[in-house]
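Notes from hallway chat w/ T.B., transcribed later so I don't forget. T.B. wanted the structure written out for a chain they're using in a teaching module, and asked if we could keep both sequence and structure tokens in one place. Agreed to drop them here.
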Amino acid sequence: MQLYKNTADALVSYLLKHGYPESRIAFEWGDRQFAIDIVVLANDNVTPISIFEIKGSRTNESYLLGIEQLRRAVRRLDFSVQCSLVFGIDEAPYFIAYDVTNIVYSNAEIRPFENTRSESSKYQPVRYEYLTLGVEPKLLNHEKVKKQERIDRMKWFCWLLIPVAAITVLVLDKQHVLPLTTERLVIIGAVFIVLLLPFFSEISIKDISMKRDNSTKDKN
């Protein structure tokens, strides 16, 4: 446990010396399903851009376990991040880290640690500003994908639920259970518009147009 703490402290000190903001470094980041030892967050203080799993001594067992933990973690993320395994050592800077991003994101079988470590795989700190430059396109693409998923769900809603609801209303009207009146048609139409508006920036019906207010989102 002391080795873990010393290694974590050494890594954080190293990151701070290389210009990483202290407020962007988080510990035990995640949820009930997974937690990463140390995470560097983007300027939004939410999005991870680099993750570190800390292990004790450099053994094949700890290496394999660390890779598996990182793989489980990245499955929960919607875009790729830099992944590193960190081990404690006795000499300054009192830790050694390996960039294992390619291994984590590959589906290949994990090779034994003794056969994979090399000077080229050692972690080299990328300036925090450079790391964040690659985040914005990922976030924009992520938001685009999520928006398309919401639209697709809304299409299913329109194709399935709305016709069923319309047929039900017509049947009730024919049976004089719920006669259609102008007021009821207006209310039903308004309800559908309210349901649809969050998924579209504007809805137009002849000369009537309704737009979603994006001013708050733009300010953020």
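Follow-up for T.B.: Strands lie at 25-30, 35-41, 48-55, 82-88, 95-99, 202-205, 208-211. Might be a good example for the class.
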